[in-house]
Here is the input.
Amino acid sequence: MKFLDIECLSELQRKLNDLELTDYRVRCQLEAYSCKPAGFDKKLSKSLEQRLLEQLEASPRAFQASPVGSLEDQSARKTLINLICTLNAAHQDYDFSSLQLSRLKRVQDVHALQQHVDSLFERFYRQLGIEFRQFLWENIGQIIRPEECEIYSYIPDYESDPYSSCGALWSFCYFFYHKNMKKILLFACTLSTRLADDSESVNSMDEEDFGKESSGLEAPFAMFETVI
Amino acid sequence: MATDKIKLEEIILKAASVGPYGVTDEEIRNSLPENVAPNDRLELYNSLLQRGRLQLKKLHGKLFYQTVEEQIANKLQALTAEERLVYSQIEGAGNKGIWTRDLRNICRLQQTQLTKVLKNLELKKLVKPFKSVKLKNKKLYMLYDLEPSVDVTGGPWYYNQEFDAEFFDILYQQTLRFIRGSSSAVTVEQVASYITSLGISKEKLEHGDFESLLQTMIYDGVVEKLYQRSNNGSSVAVYRSCRHFSPFATLGDVPCGICPVYKSCSIHGVISPSNCVYLQRWEQSLDF
Here is the structure.
């Protein structure tokens, strides 16, 4: 997935991320990607396609309730793969290749989506001015034409997810997938408390210690600092 | 002299390869011949350290020396300082692995730099990416030769980072049927050989896996665990099917709980369980 650097989207994203809120921090992503596979994506796409086909063969009924459409269709598989690649491109520290279909939902009603985002962004609109809202939706409309898109929402799993990290108060993650234009617009936002945000990487260390089964060797090993 | 040096180095390397954390200077001194002066010993250390064959570690202020495999030492020598730093962090994480974001923060590298370093290390087969069932979507790295620990792979119960409920269920039902069908209590080995003979699982299931399966059944209340004396005198855990608890086994059903003269009741008193009307009536009401 190639990141498309679109000036107005970057500006909107910047304005939202730079918002001065006393106890909170906004992390917004308004990023457009082209579905033409870049180098390493090709490898991933192939292996994902392979894996999906294998899973289909093994249990054809497993993917009955699929939000992207029946996985027996090549285009449904392609949609899933594109969504996975978009998430990977948007989050360099994560690898969504084992994304389950249950984490995705198809959004049919664009207006409901708009209302949802507007209600969450209300306090931001107050600070950024009333034209911001118009600016936001007009640009999104121009760039991706939502009424012609398949819209999907990613549901965080609250375990190992950039959208459900410690201290996140709310988040949303929408994909506007325009098949003809071969483009995906990722519109995601998380509001987290400033305190939790600062200690995020410390927390992630704790997470890994959580399931520590002492094999007797691990604990002392970690205490050694390698000098040379 | 040169061959002596090589011989002495080999002695040091052999001594320092004992144990997972290396050895102290004293232990190496004990394995070296008496005539090696302290300065010479230091020189040998330095030479080995420079070539990367020996690694120096510190714990609570004490120094430990550990041997590094020749192959790995050669690969490490060829690394840049950044790559070496990243490698040592990944090494420190053992078989739990480390997240790329933590690597970035600790090593203070830019995203692109880190990606390049990791790609290089991967090509040299020094590190490998892997997936953990607990941290499903995070990009994790560990040393190439290490096996991921069980809490990372989830063991046989996880397929593709998700809990394989179907697989677990099939094994559960089959084991339950086996236990219920057998006339006497069964051992873990018997369960293991029966299930393996059914050929349900493609990969080999360990003793511990069967134990955890049986433990789940105990928690579900369908199987109970007993200890029997085996032929050679040691105690062996056996499992047998549980009957459902009869309702009258619960203490709350006994009428004594709501008896108005509970406080005056005793075995030899005027009011006693032996002549208690409530108990008699309750006994009669029970179905056997």
The mean pLDDT of chain B is 82. The two ends of chain B are 93 Å apart (CA to CA). The first strand of chain B starts at residue 54 and ends at 59. Chain B has four domains: 2-72, 79-148, 157-241, 258-285.
